[in-house]
Amino acid sequence: MVQAARAGESMDTTDAAPVDLTSLPRIRHELVAPPFVHEHEQVATTGPRIVEFTMDIVEKEIQVADDAWLQAMTFNGSVPGPMMVVHEGDYVELTLRNPPANMMQHNIDFHAATGALGGGALTLINPGEQTVLRFKATRAGVFTYHCAPGGPMIPWHVVSGMSGTIMILPREGLKDQHGTPVAYDRVAYIGENDFYIPRNEDGTYKRFADAGESYPDTLEVMRRLIPSHVVFNGRVGALTGDNALTAKVGERVLFVHNQANRDTRPHLIGGHGDLVWEAGKFHNTPQVDLETWFIRGGSSGAALYKFLQPGLYAYVNHNLIEAVELGATAHVKVEGEWNNDLMEQVQAPTPYSGA
Hints:
By secondary structure, the chain is mainly beta. It folds into two domains: 26-169, Immunoglobulin-like, CATH 2.60.40.420; 186-335, Cupredoxins -  blue copper proteins (Immunoglobulin-like), CATH 2.60.40.420. 8% of the residues lie in helices and 36% in strands. The protein is built from four helices and 21 strands. A six-stranded mixed sheet has the order 13-12-15-19-17-18. Strands 1, 2, 3, 5 and 7 form a five-stranded mixed sheet that branches. Strands 4-9-8-6 form a four-stranded mixed sheet. Strand 2 and strand 3 form a beta hairpin. The longest helix has 12 residues, at 211-222. The radius of gyration is 22 Å and the shape is flat. This is Copper-containing nitrite reductase. Its cofactor is Cu(2+); Cu(+); FAD. One of its GO terms (biological process) is denitrification pathway. Its EC number is 1.7.2.1. It comes from Rubellimicrobium rubrum.
């Protein structure tokens, strides 16, 4: 078993004053795999609640590309981990479970939470253990969560797939740059990952029996800071072809983009960021009409776009080398009627007539 030092010093909070939350209602949400999100209200219709989630840590091999496999560590079996949605003022109560079949210690660091390494110092569990963490959602926005078991295990677990997003909506919902309420028709949840898969001497990618066996060679590649793959939602092509996202003309789609390790720059080819919370925080006034926006490593961002034309859109990391060569591309298939006022092919291609 590969183990890390505990995440910081083990915290003893037994002397803290108790909090009485017995008057608050409880609601449980079942998490769903990305790019989808569990059902939720955009505007809160009640006062604060305790929102319960259960999440299993799953260590498993995943296929990153046709010729590459990764000994992944995941939240709930997906890369990225599932999105949780609550409202500002709610309490998030997460049951985190580390099944006995796993090899590693794991925990969870919520960038949305206050204290104890984002919960990491209170959630470190061995295989065969589980824990319950509750924190108050005091800040509105989209925030990264990731595993942070301590020392060199932190970057390894993150680049092995252990990150995700929690969205904390303002109780009154989202607002545009003028303070006017705005809603979305669907969420497209995109997790970008940089993977560092070692190669054999002949250039083929190595494949390992388990995560522990992969660690030394993977660490060597990680230290060079050059990823072998940069992908959306766990593998090359995860959101293209038959797996493409879908929308209709007139629909507003909220793109939520997470990158727990490296900076990235999303761009929707053929569309725009109508409203962009580049730093992901909903009480900040959104920027408008962006062509490309910036997501800092270790954060999530959000962009709202109303589709105006049908067709196939590409949503990419606009480091185009990473998009085309390493895999950071998604597609959105949009149905509807074409509007020639916005774009028209005035003349189809004809033979060249120049001198």
